[in-house]
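Encode chain A's predicted structure.
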Amino acid sequence: MTGSQSEFVRQEAERAAEDAAWEAAEARHARTNGHDPSAQVPPIDLGEWDFGDDNEPIPPRGWLLGNLLCRGFLSAIFADGSVGKTALIIAMALSLATGQPLIGEHVFVRSRVLIVCFEDGADELRRRLTAAILHYGISKNQVREHLFVTAINRSDAKLASARGGEIIAGSLGEALERSIGRHQIDAVFLDPFVKAHSVPENDNAAIDFVTNLFVDVLVKHDCAGCAPHHTSKGPADPGNANTGRGASAMKDAARLVYTLTLMSESEANLFGVSVDDRASLVRLDSGKVHLVRRSPHARWFKLVGVSLGNGNALYPNGNEVQTIECWTAPDLFRGLSTILVNAILDEIDAGLPGGALYSDHPRATDRAAWRVVTKHADRTEPQARQIIKEWLKTGLLYHCPFRNEKQRKEQQGLRVNATKRPGTHAAP
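Encoded structure for chain A:
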């Protein structure tokens, strides 16, 4: 073979290698997006129908636990670290597995539940579950064949991974499907979501790919899914679905997003909660709820320690492990009779000597309406301020302009809407 022939053969081999590499890259990209390039792709049929002829009964949504979990949809709970996400989802899982409303949410269907834990080992998961069943007085017989758990520490057990700049579906999706089919699972918890994948957390396309894989499993098997997720750094913002860490695709994929936050200092002052007790109280707020009307009210929970009684010679005291229970915020209006409320309203409506009206302004002093509340009722300043806010919200109180002769200017003050007074009392 001459030198020119050898060079020709070498160039042809290089071109063939380049073509093969390009085709391999194309095939990898196609597989990443769920396509097999070697298969014939059938033409797409949209499957549209004439809604005018659609007279079939519409099935209701498959709610499992209150408005928190629904078949075929992904729920997410956004919270900072150590706020109680895992304690909450364990209580949710036990509610479903036993059919009992342990967290105050209605159980529509006693369900088979799968908890996939990525953060704790098997022994720690057993401690957490044991603490919860001890606290709620649940026996193992009550959850048998309804509560399935696993602790995963394999680095390859992911919904998806990033390799060489590509996003590749992992082995976890198929593993979930096998477990769901084996036990006829109704609800799946992935705790936490960030450990269920190894793609860039801030990449919207990558997170969208991951969440779609999980949602596809939920839809295929008619399951509800829940994925607790960490929040970004910054002050707590109850009910803000945008506080989730990383890409917004996580929030967009979930149809039900809730936030779990610690009780704030102002809330503790409002409810008369001590500094020590405040650290154990958390609130659950609806942040994004496409399937139902958003609730303006928080669900409150208390983190409690449970002794496992598992001491031995080396550790005689055993372990105390955290679980969660419902907590009811004090009713600001408890003990306020109709007569007492109307006495407060009478004084507010009458105003001060000289014709000035009371005010709800935060910096109001002599005209502060909250002082009238504390004069008549055993309430703290924060509680009295909140009562005034509630009355304004309901329209029992309203803002009214008046001439403040002492200051020689127009101001806003509070008057009472007589039609909304409690009882049959009439203002004098």
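DSSP finds twelve helices and 15 strands in the chain.
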